[in-house]
Amino acid sequence: MTKPALTSLSPDALAAWLASAGEPSFRATQILEWVWKKKAASYEAMSNLPAALREKLAASFHLAALEHTHTQGSADTTRKFLFRLLDGRYVESVLIPANPALYGESSDRRTLCVSSQVGCAYGCKFCASGLAGFTRNLDAAEIAGQVLAAEQLSGERVDNLVFMGMGEPLANLDNLLAAIELITGGKTLRLGARHLTISTSGLVPQIRQLAEHPQQIRLAISLHGATDEVRQQIMPINRKWPVAELFDALDFWNSRKNQKLTLEYILIENVNDAPEQAAILARHARRIHAKVNLIPYNTVEGLAWKRPSYTRCRAFRDILKNAGVSATLRLEKGGDIDAACGQLRLKQETAEGIISLAG
Length: 359
Ligand code: SF4
Description:
This protein is an alpha/beta fold. It has helices spanning 11-20, 27-37, 51-60, 100-103, 140-154, 173-184, 204-211, 228-234, 237-240, 243-256, 275-288, 310-322, 343-351, and strands spanning 66-73, 79-85, 90-97, 110-113, 117-119, 134-137, 160-163, 196-200, 218-222, 262-267, 291-296, 327-329. The chain folds into two domains: 6-60, DNA polymerase, domain 1 (Orthogonal Bundle), CATH 1.10.150.530; 66-351, Alpha-Beta Barrel (TIM Barrel), CATH 3.20.20.70. Helices cover 36% and strands 18% of the residues. The two termini are 34 Å apart. The structure holds iron/sulfur cluster.
């Protein structure tokens, strides 16, 4: 059986392990500091721990849940990290700067886009992650470990987290919530829950469940179609949870949370970019007081969808704005580094023969 990662232990679980190993309880604080704060690269680096304890730890746990294998950097300094998991599978995370010089934004916050599963079962037609189907859920250490590793690799603090990488986070809710404990915990990564955004394709029961969660986590919905007809062409989940049921769940969310919802809408030429869709989308957004992020489609190798012209994207946005909806047309970052989630991992696993996309 493979060893678990040390990062999979919550502070309480680490304290329990130390007690069972006959070690004093104050070692827990030291170990947590080495792992989550100082981001130690090896057990040897944990210089204030006795050698015998370091050996016990090494015999029982891998230090990290994932190993960095590759970084793709882009001209705008967006960086995509590819990580190998302990079972040989791959996931990726994207570190996106908000560069005021390039984008005219008012902050220099760094956002990390995190994966929650290997592959994805939801099969959205425009998405690289869905191409090879679903392999498995990530555990809490593999999710939180992406943040730890990104901070280690970049030497920078991550300010915002979006669960928008590979996988449907709400289909892996238990592990996601355990990861959020590690990410927001005072002894672990110490990131405020308000800086976390979970993006979902629209799993209605889990949206309702998450609405009852005590932390003020943000929620974004991958809508990508304002009516059932258009949405289910590209998002099979819409057959299970149609637009009306989804918006009922979002009303429920609003009754429990005071964070503004976001509707994500990828603009795809001749699929969902008609002015009529914009008008209906505006009505939905007004009903739930949501802001809208419009994202011109980023071409995915092997898929035929196209990005609309910039003029058409702007016209779509203007219909929303004229209807009083807060809407942004996202300036693309990382388009030159396979930034659409899942593309880098697909290339790596295909090259290693782990998956095959043929046929
Ligand atoms: S867009 Fe999200 S939910 Fe849809 S297939 Fe891709 S990863 Fe899965």
